[in-house]
Amino acid sequence: MNAKACRHESATFEITLARAFIAISLVLTMSAVPQSAGAQHADRSGKEVVDTLCISCHGTGASGAPRIGDKKAWEKRASQGLTGLTKNALKGIRQMPPHGGNPQLSDTEIERAITYMVNQSGGNWTEPVSRTSKTADRTGEQIVRTQCAKCHESGVGGAPRIGDRAAWTPRVKQGLDGVVRSAIKGHGAMPPRGGMADLTDSEIRSAVIYMFNYGTVPQKQQ
What is the CATH number of the domain that holds 204? Predict the structure, then answer.
């Protein structure tokens, strides 16, 4: 075999070896992906997070933390809504460190823990869904039947009754966005987000439109 043939054979071998190395690397990388994905635990429930972490302070009220079950202590905090309370928990507040001292907690887990503690203290919030599993917004009718009807069905506290155009028209004249903002912030006897901290802005808008249109637009049969 001459020198030229040897060089060609050597180059071919090096190329083959390089390709084999790349192929093996890809296989190893791909096999590691499911393992890594599996290591990302599913978001835990609020109770699980509270029982393993938050209970250390919120169970007894240590260091000024609102004690779980203390309705008066949680009532004022609950008025901030889930967004406000979550922001405090993420950043840390007073003696509570960011993420409650566990940086591995996801935002959803923190929201669920807050919701659980609020509900154990007289609240009636819905546990947030995972960020990784997008769910459709609830309809205006579903929200109204679940929450808004408690006051808007009979007009408790001056709330405009569902379908009462005479009562709703002056409010809607200022613009739908204004009515929605008012519902988000709270107005008169109505607490922020109508008392359901997990309602999205679009869900509140749907509920307002449903109450305004009720009786004038044919309702779907359930």
Answer: 1.10.760.10
Between CA 99 and CA 116 the distance in angstroms is 16
To which H or E segment does residue 169 belong? helix 165-172
Asked if residue 55 belongs to a domain, the reply is yes
Q: How many domains does the chain have?
A: 2
More confident residue, 141 or 131: 141
pTM score, two decimals? Answer: 0.46
> Residue 24, exposed/middle/buried by CB under 10 A (0-12, 13-18, 19+)?
exposed
Torsion angle defined by CA atoms of residues 17, 22, 24 and 26, in that order, rounded to the nearest 10 degrees: -170
Task: Tell me: do 66 and 106 sit in the same domain.
Answer: yes
Q: What is the domain range of residue 115? A: 46-119
Per-residue tokens: 26 = 């890809």
Q: How many angstroms separate the CA atoms of 221 and 114, rounded?
A: 36
